[in-house]
Amino acid sequence: MSTHLRPALLLAVLALALTACSGEDDGGASAAGPSTVTATVTASPSSSPSSSPSSPASSPASSSGAATSGSGPAECTADDLTLAVRVAPGGGTAGAVHSRVVLTNTSEAPCVLQGYGGVSYVGGGDGTQVGAAADRTGGTAPRLVLVTGERAVQALTETDAGAYGDARCDPTEVDGVRVYPPDETASLYAAHATTGCADDTVHLLEVGPYHRA
């Protein structure tokens, strides 16, 4: 080989070696590539309020307001009233006395009275009922609103016990009259001396509905 070609050949071999090294570096970097980090994001529930919040539940109506505006005065109780029994003007008819049961509202508030009251004779000094309770006569029972001091009257017819004879009647002294206001379970008492029949098959008493005095 010519001595003039040796330096050129040496340069060519050196250039090929450099090119091969350069290709390996590029290929290695390309194969590895940059490292990749994967992040997982979990959505949390929104803490912001809804754009159209639900309306709050309606509050119940005041029971006291409803009672004041809707129901009006309560029914009269025995505690609201005082009782008197009086002979009606005109006295009566043959064999019967016409009396009046009078209830007066002595409470501090108006109350309602409507219908019939229970009426019976009592005696023995201890409130023991004498004979049958009063029967009811027909009639309209108005709704009465009694203000303080106002009265309601119930007609009371008392048949003479002597009309039935001693054997049937079993005459018994009466101390007074016990009255239950309409729809009440507590009673009122008024002294009213007379004679009743202990036999409760004999009905001496009749009452009408309450009306204004």
Please provide a written account of the structure.
- By secondary structure, the chain is of the alpha+beta class.
- The protein has 3 helices and 12 strands, in the order H-H-E-E-E-E-E-E-E-E-H-E-E-E-E.
- It has helices at residues 6-32, 63-71, 166-169, and strands at residues 81-93, 96-105, 111-113, 118-123, 128-130, 135-136, 144-146, 151-159, 171-180, 188-197, 205-207, 211-212.
- Strand 9 (171-180) and strand 10 form a beta hairpin.
- The longest helix has 27 residues, at 6-32.
- The protein is elongated and about 50 Å long.
- The model is unreliable at 12-69 (pLDDT under 50).
Q: Quote the distance from N terminus to C terminus.
A: 160 Å
- The fraction of residues in strands falls at 25-35%
- Average pLDDT reading: 77
- How big is the Rg? 54 Å
Shape: elongated
- Share of helix among residues? 10-25%
Please describe the biggest sheet, giving its number of strands, its sense, and whether it closes into a barrel: 6 strands, mixed
**Helix-strand sequence:** HHEEEEEEEEHEEEE
Uncertain ranges: 12-69
What is the count of DSSP helices, taking H or I runs of 4+ residues? 3
Would you tell me the structural class of the helices and strands? alpha+beta
Number of strands: 12
